[in-house]
Each structure stands twice: as structure tokens, then as C-alpha cells.
Write a structure and sequence with these properties.
Layout (H helix, E strand, L loop, with lengths): L15 H21 L3 E2 L2 E2 L7 H15 L3 H10 L4 H10 L3 H10 L4 H5 L10
Antiparallel strand pairs: 1-2
Length: 126
């Protein structure tokens, strides 16, 4: 199936609309793949490791939003979870040690929702 883009707005320019359409199609496919692979929890990308300052902050905010803990608690939780957001969420929600949370995630295909059995947080307007 090909996206139908119609004629270009600027006559003589090529691939402007086709490039945008291709990007949208590929974004849709990869977003669906991330969801199917269990890399998300609701609309949050939780399969990430905090390897730089930007990701440390993002990881803390995600853990805070999903579990309701403070930033300091999220920081401590992420350290105990080896900087894995997914693991930190499961540890907090189940009150489980790291090895138990790892085992449960592995048994459930790495999908947080299958382990915690609860709904992800509602989508917030950003």
C-alpha cells in the first residue's frame, strides 16, 4: 500500500510531500512495534536506561509519574534498578527486590502492565 500524497505544493520540487508521508508511515510502524515489544507503559517510553543527564531527568520524571514517589525516591529506586525505568516501576509497584522484578519482567515478555496488572497513568496534556 502506498500513501497517496497528490501533487507538490511547489511545482518542480520533488519528494517534499512524499518524504513527509514516508516519515509518517515509518513513525507509525515503529511506534506500533515499540508498543508490541513492551517498551511503553501507556504513552510513556519506559524501556530506557539513564545514560546521560537528559535521560536521568526523564527517567526520574517517568518513575515519579507512574509510581507517585518523590524525585529523591525515584533517584534511589533507579539506582537500585541499575538505571532501568521499567525495572524501577515494577520494583516500586510490587514492593519487590530487583531480582524478583527482573524475573517477573522476563516471564511476562518485558511488559510492565502484564506484571503490575494495573492501568498505566492517564495521558497528561504537555
Amino acid at each position: 500500500m502506498l500513501p497517496i500524497v497528490g501533487p507538490e505544493v511547489v511545482t518542480g520540487s520533488t519528494r517534499m510531500k512524499a518524504g513527509t508521508a514516508t516519515k509518517l508511515v515509518l513513525n507509525t510502524i515503529t511506534t506500533g512495534a515499540m508498543i508490541r515489544l513492551g517498551k511503553t507503559y501507556g504513552n510513556l517510553m519506559v524501556d530506557l536506561r539513564a545514560t546521560n543527564n537528559k535521560l536521568v531527568d526523564r527517567s526520574q520524571r517517568i518513575v515519579m509519574e507512574v509510581t507517585g514517589v518523590s524525585r529523591d525516591e525515584a533517584t534511589n529506586l533507579l539506582e537500585r534498578a541499575g538505571k532501568s525505568v521499567k525495572l524501577a516501576i515494577v520494583m516500586q509497584k510490587l514492593g519487590a527486590p530487583r531480582d524478583e522484578a527482573e524475573r517477573l519482567l522476563a516471564q511476562n515478555g518485558g511488559v510492565v502492565r502484564r506484571v503490575t496488572k494495573d492501568e498505566p497513568p492517564p495521558i497528561k496534556e504537555r
